[in-house]
């Protein structure tokens, strides 16, 4: 498999018009405000460059930052009206910037570049690090950071769930073995893995590698299973619940194959794949995926967001009976602990006063 190219762009910071530009010995241009005053924008830019790329700040943390900085702004405004001098105003601005940076760093820690996933649900999993070290009590360590080369094994009848940096959810069926490769690459060594990737941040999307070839997602929900000797003549099965996947065989001279939602790929031991019709997205055969799913977050989310997430998890198309029902769901905000999809659906509907009716393959939301 060819290596993926990864590039990161850096936005330059240009000196504003009318500012003096000084070039220090290291060759980096820095901008100074007129009359030697501290340039607050340049201070902030330096802080951001030092911090490096970070994930999106959660909404709850943004609210806390806004509350803190608003209070400081009001204090500064009162000082200005009382006749404080200009240098004090600039010093206060610099202090405010430092306060923002400190608060953001506390609430919004930098992502460890070596972490590829974390355990989101760990009821029956054993973790072995790349160096062979076994993680003690991994079953009780939801949130455990996972890195390249880490190996996960689920016991029979129990599952596990991983959360990737881009928000993708990965579930392991009981009796499965998975190893983490480079970013976005999962190596299935036995059993079955399910990937829910609504919009992967990994370059090229999520890939599941097997001894027969690689399954590449195209914004989708899919399952990859190695049936083993229990199913003679079948080396690999790929079921697509939503979106599409492409199977690229490892053997030369064998064509790639693509499957859409509602289809499955059956791969022979020689790598040749055939496309067949599969079950509906809400079929009972997907039950193991629901049982291995971590609870859905409800706190601070709109009813519409929770309904959409729950319907997707359950394999149902979300429908609104009217535009008024949709607007109502978007306006209502929940305050509740995390719940599994079916319970989250019920709580969201009851809390908002909406009705949720299951139909064939869909969920209809309406005003009472």
Structural class: alpha+beta
Report the top-level CATH class of the largest domain: Mainly Beta
**What general outline do the C-alpha atoms trace?**
globular
CATH structural fold name of the largest domain: Jelly Rolls
Distance between the termini: 55 Å
The oligomeric status of these chains comes to single chain
Question: What series of H and E elements makes up the topology?
Answer: EEHHHEEEEEEEEEEEEEEHHEHHEE
How much of the polypeptide forms β-strand, as a percent range? 25-35%
Quickly give the CATH architecture of the largest domain.
Answer: Sandwich
- How many structurally independent domains? 3
Would you summarize the structure shown here?
The chain has 368 residues and is α+β, with helices and mostly antiparallel strands.
Molecular structure report:
Helix 1 (40-51) runs parallel beside helix 3 (86-107). Helices cover 26% and strands 30% of the residues. It is of the alpha+beta class and 368 residues long. The termini are far apart. It has 7 helices and 19 strands. The chain folds into 3 domains: 30-107, no CATH class; 115-287, Jelly Rolls, CATH 2.60.120.1440; 295-366, Phage tail protein beta-alpha-beta fold. A hairpin with a 5-residue loop joins strand 7 (160-163) and strand 8. The strands form 3 sheets. Strands 3, 4, 5, 6, 7, 8, 9, 10, 11, 12, 13, 14, 15 and 16 form a 14-stranded mixed sheet that branches. The protein is globular, with a radius of gyration of 26 Å. The longest helix has 23 residues, at 59-81.
